[in-house]
Amino acid sequence: MTEITTNPFDTEDDAFHEECGVFGVWNAPDAAALTALGLHALQHRGQEASGIVSHGEKGFRSHKGLGLVGDIFGDARVIASLPGRAAVGHNRYATAGETALRNVQPLYADFAFGGLAVAHNGNLTNALALRRQLVRRGCLFQSSTDSEVFVHLIAISLYATVQDRLIDALKQVDGAYSLVALHDGAMMGVRDPNGVRPLVLGRLGADQNNAWVLASETCALDIVGAEFVRDVEPGEIVVIDDTGVRSVKPFANTANRFCIFEYIYFARPDSVVEGTPVYESRKRIGAELARESGVEADVIVPVPDSGVPAAMGYAQEAGIPFELGIIRNHYVGRTFIEPTDNIRHLGVKLKHSANRAAIEGKRIILVDDSIVRGTTSKKIVEMMRQAGAAEVHMRISSPPTTHSCFYGIDTPERDKLLASNHSVEEMARIIGADSLAFISLDGLYRALGRKGRDAKDPGYCDACFTGDYAIPLTDLVGHKEREPALLALNGV
Ligand SMILES: O=P(O)(O)OC[C@H]1O[C@H](OP(=O)(O)OP(=O)(O)O)[C@H](O)[C@@H]1O
Ligand SMILES: NC(=O)CC[C@H](N)C(=O)O
Ligand code: SF4
Ligand SMILES: [Mg+2]
C-alpha cells in the first residue's frame, strides 16, 4: 500500500466530517470477523482507513489499510490472518495527522509488559505539548496522530501494571477520548472524564462464548448480535478479562459533556445513545423546530441522508406532507475523483438530484441538520428552484454552527463557518432561501428532554454552537485557531 500525505479522494470537505469508530471483542471464537462486522456498522464514523489487531495463542496480529472496511477486510484470507479470541478495531477520520498508513489505528507497540493495541475516537487538545516533551525525553514517534501520545505515556510510566500505566497516561492528557485497548491479559474500554465521545458495552450469546464487546455505538452491537449491556460512563475504565468486567473510576471530577452533535448528525439513527434512540431524538428536534419556526408550505423535503429523521418530525408536527423531493445518489463515495474543474463545479449534483414530480409548483420547506460552509444548502436551494419550487424555506435542526470542534470532529476553520461571520438573514440571502431558521439552543435542549440549556451545567458539549469549550484547548496557537494538535506536524 502506498502512503499518501494528503487525501486526494476527499472531494467534499465542506461539512463536519465524521469522527472515528472503535470496536473490541474479548473471548469470542470469531473475534476478528466480528470486529470487521462491527467496523462495517460503524463505517459512517470514518471512511479514510480501518484496522484490526487480534490476539490469541500466536500472539498479536494486525492488518490495516486505507479505504473502506469492506475493501480492507472483505477477503476471508485477511480475517484468517487475524486469529485469536480477542480483537480491537478502528475506523479513522483524521483529526490530527495526515491520512497515511502509519496513522491508521489501532496503534500497536511492544512494551516491557508485552504487546498493547490502542484505538482512539476523539482528539487530544494537549497532544502537541505532550509530544514535544516526550520527544525531548527521547521517545521516537512513529506516526503524526495525537493518539500516539497514549502509547509513549504508557511506555514511560513508572507504574507496574498495565491498568495503572494507562491511568497514569490518562491523567496527563486533555481532550476527548473513547478508547479500546487490548493486551494479552485484558481488553479495556475508556471514556474521558467528560464523556464527550460515546462507548457502549455489550455481550454476545452462548454461540460466541458470551464474549464481551465494546463499541462506539449500539448499531455495531446489533450487527454482531450482541446485547446492549450499558454505556461506559464518563471517566470510567472497564477492564474485561477472563474473570468478567471490572469498573475503575480514576477521576475525581467528571461532568457529562457528551457531544450534542452526535444526536444531531454523527451517530447512526438506529443507535441508542444514553438510553434514547437517536432516531427519536432527531424526530423530536424536528418537531421542536416546527413549533419554533413554522411557515406555511405544501411539502416538507428532507436533505438526505442526515436531514431525514428531523424532517419527518417536522412534517408530523406541522401536519404538512413529507415528500422525497431530493434523491441522493449512494454511489458517490469518497473515491469519486472529479476529473476537471468544470466537473467539480457541478458539486453537489453528483450527490443530490431534484425529484421534480414532488416539488414542482409547491411551496417547500427543506430540512437539514446543519449548515457548515453553506455549500450544500446553496446548491440545493438553487436546485429546488430550477426544478420549479414556488417557494423554498430552509429549516435547520441545529443552532448556527459558529465555532470549530477540537474534540474529535474534523471541522473547517472558524472563518469558513458561514454562521461565524453572518447573521441568519445574511445566510438566508447567501443560500438564496425565501426564509431560513435554525432551532434555538434552548429548543434543542428541550427536544432532548431538558427545560432548556443550563449554562452552569449544560450536560452536553455544545461548543460548536456556543464557544463554551469545557476542556482546555492547550495546543491552540494564539492567533490561528485551527492548530490545535499535530496539524503542524502533518507530513513530518
Ligand atoms: O454547509 P455545508 O458545508 O455544505 O455542510 C452541511 C451539510 O453537510 C452534511 O451532509 P453530508 O452531505 O456531508 O452528509 P449526509 O449525507 O450524511 O447528510 C450535513 O448533513 C449538511 O447537509
Ligand atoms: N476522528 C477521530 O476520532 C480521530 C482519532 C485521532 N485523533 C486521529 O486523528 O486519528
Ligand atoms: S464542539 Fe460540537 S462537534 Fe465537537 S464535541 Fe462539542 S458538540 Fe460535538
Ligand atoms: Mg447532510
Automatic annotation (TrEMBL):
Substrates-to-products reaction catalysed: 5-phospho-beta-D-ribosylamine + L-glutamate + diphosphate = 5-phospho-alpha-D-ribose 1-diphosphate + L-glutamine + H2O
EC number: 2.4.2.14
Source taxon at top rank: Bacteria
EC class (word): transferase
Span of domain Glutamine amidotransferase type-2: 20-243
Keywords: 4Fe-4S, Glutamine amidotransferase, Glycosyltransferase, Iron, Iron-sulfur, Magnesium, Metal-binding, Purine biosynthesis, Transferase
Pathway: Purine metabolism; IMP biosynthesis via de novo pathway; N(1)-(5-phospho-D-ribosyl)glycinamide from 5-phospho-alpha-D-ribose 1-diphosphate: step 1/2
Cofactors: Mg(2+); [4Fe-4S] cluster
Annotated Mg(2+) binding sites: S306, D368, D369
Gene3D superfamilies: 3.40.50.2020, Glutamine Phosphoribosylpyrophosphate, subunit 1, domain 1
InterPro entries (alphabetical): GATase_2_dom, Ntn_hydrolases_N, PRTase-like, PRTase_dom, PurF, PurF_N
SUPFAM superfamilies given in the database record: N-terminal nucleophile aminohydrolases (Ntn hydrolases), PRTase-like
Residues spanning the signal sequence: none
Catalytic residues of the enzyme: C20 (nucleophile)
Gene Ontology molecular function, alphabetical: amidophosphoribosyltransferase activity
A Pfam cross-reference name: GATase_6
Role played: Catalyzes the formation of phosphoribosylamine from phosphoribosylpyrophosphate (PRPP) and glutamine.
Family under the similarity heading: In the C-terminal section; belongs to the purine/pyrimidine phosphoribosyltransferase family.
Protein name: Amidophosphoribosyltransferase
Species in which this protein is naturally found: Roseomonas populi
Organism taxonomic ancestry: Bacteria, Pseudomonadati, Pseudomonadota, Alphaproteobacteria, Acetobacterales
Gene: purF
